[in-house]
Amino acid sequence: MGNYFTRHLQVMIASLGKLREAPLAAFLTITVIAITLALPSALHIVIKNALQVTGGWAGAVDFSLYLKPDIDEDQARTLATLLDGRADIAQVTLIPADEALAEFAALSGFGDAVDALDENPLPHTLVVRPLAGLSADASALLKQEMDSLPETDIVQLDTEWVGRFQSMLKLVRRALFMTAGLLGIALLVVIGNTIRLDIQNRRDEIEIMQLIGASDGFIRRPFLYTGFWYGLGGGLLALAVVGAGLILLAGPVSELAGQYGSRFSLSGLSAKESAIVVGTGLALGLGGSWFATARHMRRILPT
Amino acid sequence: MIRFDNVSKRYPGGQEALKNLTLQIDKGELVFVTGHSGAGKSTLLRLIGLIEKPTRGQLLVDNRSTRGIRKGKIPAYRRDLGMVFQDHKLLFDRTVFDNVALPLVIAGMGHREIGKRVRAALDSVDLLRKEKQRPETLSSGEQQRVGIARAIVGRPKIVIADEPTGNLDPELSLGIMRLFDRFREIGVTLLIASHDLALIGQFGHRHIALSDGVLEYDSAAEAKPASDAY
Known about the structure:
heterodimer, A: Alpha-Beta Plaits, 2 domains, B: Rossmann fold, 7 helices, 10 strands
């Protein structure tokens, strides 16, 4: 058994040595794999951060209750406390009119114009976050109830936008899976073709091995390890590419978020997600080389 | 040890390389196979090496019919066989030691045992001092001796050699044949295909001659060769 593992280790290292004999070709193959893995990974990060920006799905269905102009801040606060106690509401946040105006003046760039106003035109606003998982019907009913409150002037629930956003996200997610699938097939072809060329170049060696009693498994082993190295190298380089992209974008994103008063910063791949990227690279590397050896070695017979 | 029972071999193109060959080779025999080009010498050896399969008849090797050996079992069968080729079939990106060690590595033998056996095999062909060299730095005769060392390193019961002295000068050829004769002395069964009747004549071993796929002469049957052309 010890010999078996020693042989595997030797073949593994020897396969790496073979790649070093043609470093440019190996690097190009690994780069292709890395870019192919980095694309869906980057798309995944975009979706993940988009969800983070919008505060998740719950944030996307918040109601804005614009209260009547004659409602003062104390009445608004009392109403907020009352609504907060409801079972179908997760959270109620009061945005006092003065605070809203100050924020508008700061973020809109119309500070001077706002200062010129005699009185604050904005009402007190309650941001009502329904309980997570509330059905569409229950949300509609809640909105109706909010609308019928005597203190309410307008209730705004941009369900159309939420619907669009959900559809877009579904589309992007579907596109991500399709792209990942297609790129996976492309990777299998790229790795398979690279291994096929390797098999062709080592045809004489394979014939000799067959003649002196090497099993298919023994002959296949170095090619599988070559695929393993391609996959591992591609996976690690993909992580590096994605990481570099995040570093390059982190500054501008923080700056943009800051302009909207947000402390949002880009989040990259978690340890589990990184392991999935490398694992996918390895699986495709081994899979591609397996298919190539199974298909092309069958055609090589000793002469 | 090896028995051909009415064995015929027809290639896809229609050429019949062997016709109803019946032949028995006993354990520890050294048999020279002669014949003109296309006589069927190589086909006979290729059938034993399971590189080809008989079209008709039965071939028994070590009391086992080759017809019953499944594809997956062919590598194990070949590991019990030593094969020597006219073109040596060495791996030029590996050292002499690594070339000779290959059958043992394939068999999964331990590192220490491989070292011992490879050095013993290289010593027997007088190439121990060249174990670290690459085959391209060796002469054709030395390369052939590496091929022979590789064939015998696994201590096979049977060695088949297809024109092992084909490209060598007479002195080297004689040395190679003497080497084979030493293996016979330790109980190895050998079949050697050759054109060189003069060389074969220097050894008193069994000699069979093929012509157009037919066994034309067998010294064991005390018949005279029909032709001295080969």
